Amino acid sequence: MDHTVTMQAPKAQDREALPAVLRGWRRKCPSCGSGPMLKGYLKVRDTCPVCREELHHHRADDGPAYLTILIVGHLMAPLLLVVFEIWRPEPLVLVAIFSIGTVGLSLYLLPRLKGALIGFQWARRMNGFGQTR
């Protein structure tokens, strides 16, 4: 019985997901990595100004907001418990510090997660990203 495994070389049109996701995290075009993906805070450009890659196919929808809530909640809730148990600050001080931290972290993560999600969609040729020009 022959149990040899043959490895296939990646096709020329295959796109690596990790570099595309990292470019998206930096809010750059997932194709070239140099053109800005976003104009403004969350508005995605229709095309990349550098390589002319079409970006309007994305379907990020509520994914970035969901991931932001998931990450911020999983970071801030245990931290809140630890800070309260160790230092026992006044409730208003605790609310003020963690409110500012939560809003700040959410505002930082939201556009980056949106870019990463769009980069993943581009790499996997989802939602029209795989169409030829």
Structure, explained:
This protein has one domain (17-123). Helix content is 50%, strand content 3%. The protein is built from three helices and two strands. It has a two-stranded antiparallel ribbon with strand order 1-2. α1 packs across α3 (91-123). It is elongated and about 60 Å long. It starts with 16 loop residues before the first helix and ends in a 10-residue tail after the last helix.
Strand order of the largest sheet: 1-2
The helix content is: 40-55%
Distance between the termini: 47 Å
The Rg value, from CA coordinates, equals 20 Å
Unreliable runs, pLDDT <50, ≥5 residues? none
Task: Give the key terms.
single chain; mainly alpha; 133 residues; elongated
Write the layout of secondary structure elements.
Blueprint: H1 17-25, E1 38-39, E2 43-44, H2 63-87, H3 91-123
Antiparallel strand pairs: 1-2
Helix pairs in contact: 1-3, 2-3
Protein name: Zinc-finger protein
Organism: Thalassovita gelatinovora (Thalassobius gelatinovorus)
Transmembrane segments: 65-86, 92-110
Summarize the structure.
The protein is mainly alpha-helical. Helices cover 50% and strands 3% of the residues.
